[in-house]
Amino acid sequence: MKPIICAFFVSAVFFAQPDAVAANTAEDTTYVIPIKGMIERGLVYAVKRGIKEAKERGAGAIILDMDTPGGKLGSCEEIVNLLLDTPVTTYTFVNPRAISAGAIIAFATDKIYMTPSALIGDAMPILMSPLPFGSPQEPGEGLKEKIMSPTVALIRAAAQQKGHDTNLAEAMVRPEFEYKIGEDVISPAGNLVTLTSLDAERKVGKDQHPLLSSGTVKTLDDLLKTIGRSDSTLVIIEITPAERIARLIEGFPLSGILLALGLLGLYVEFKTPGFGFPGIAGILLLAIWFWGHNVAGVAGIGELILFIFGIVLLLIEIFLIPGFGYVGVTGIVCIGTAIAMGMVEHLPSGPLFRFPEGRMDISILNIAIAVIGVFTGGILLAKLLPKTHMFQTIMLGKQLSHESGFQAAPDTTGMIGMHGTALTPLRPAGTGEIDGKRVNVVARGEFIDKDKSIVVAEVHGNRIVVEIADNSSSKI
């Protein structure tokens, strides 16, 4: 036994060694997340994935390789929150622009470095035209402060948490804010602060700390050398094709269209017998909708399970339970709740459900498209579908009328006036013998005891009405 025990411990130490080495060298990994072009939803997915991987792997640093003219404020806010929540040391490499939303994101990192020709600043929010090729415009006086105040709070909060100058941050957002160092006016009132690399690395204060930039470097490799991570393993995060597709699915108006078509397919399936193409198409479209929202970081596995549970309840209501009751209503509620929750943002920390700025409007628009699409599509299909060739093949078009020789019950009108005997008590229904045949009859006026003589008074299809023969004036 001793050799076996010794071999076990030796094997355990041998196989455990790579894990120990990996744990010791995990901090030698540096994640690089490119912030290129406009800041929008697609970039949020990549940043969220990169930060998550860096945290799970225990990376030593995250570098934002930034060259952006700005972008959507809602997406900027999400990225700022992600950066402020991560325990990994973060750097911004301004290469060569960090304008508007890019400057706000840079303030949410621990250190900022710039290339010799880099610019950072000019973070005042503007309104984008809803038209595809419309030009941006400054918000009116009534709306300006409503937009400006949260933006100032966002950049000041980032600056406070990361140790940057909050007054400098606010001067990049408010043009009326004068920024000066001692008696030296860096930016007079009426101008937005935009700094060059030389301006940003200017030494200020008694301790001669840099104004904003910790240094000027030419390339990413130079930055890695400067921060002592030239030998680290680089992991570069890029937007994947799946994230690009998810961005389209989750955005306006495709999200609302997919949702409308999927729900419409389920509605048609519910209105037609059996289970076929409309139901399969509806489930597939809704599955695509949930996949896109899941990749986008909105819909989680909980929403998907709730949606599947609702579908199962609806199928049970359709195929196993007659009529429509509590099971079907519960299924519809589960589906609606899953869809509503699938549009709510899930962030790594903070409230369980929250709508970042601008997200509420997109969700409401998508839901409006879905509701209008299902309502309009249901009316059109109710009018047009019965006229199509496909529907004619599954619909009974021939009328089974009496004139065509069809009848629901045999003709019994000839039994009127015939006599018989009550085989059972008629109270009022029972069994009688008429013309030597055993038939179901109904007493008229009063109950009739067994073995009483009866006569047929009325016939309504298969309903034969009789009365006591002694009180009847019917002819034999």
Description:
With 476 residues, the chain is of the alpha/beta class. The chain has three domains: 28-236, Alpha-Beta Complex (2-enoyl-CoA Hydratase, Chain A, domain 1); 241-394, no CATH class; 413-471, Nucleic acid-binding proteins (OB fold (Dihydrolipoamide Acetyltransferase, E2P), Beta Barrel), CATH 2.40.50.140. The chain contains 15 helices and 17 strands. It has helices at 2-25, 41-57, 73-85, 101-107, 141-162, 166-171, 197-200, 220-226, 241-250, 254-271, 277-295, 301-319, 326-341, 359-384, 389-394; strands spanning 29-36, 61-68, 89-99, 111-114, 119-121, 179-181, 184-187, 194-196, 203-204, 209-210, 215-216, 233-236, 419-422, 429-434, 437-443, 453-460, 463-468. Strands 1, 2, 3, 4, 5, 8, 11 and 12 form an eight-stranded mixed sheet that branches. It has a five-stranded mixed beta barrel with strand order 13-14-15-17-16. The protein is rod-shaped and about 125 Å long. It starts with a helix and ends in an 8-residue tail after the last strand. The relative contact order is 0.07. Mean pLDDT is 78; it is low at 1-25, 129-134, 346-358 and 472-476.
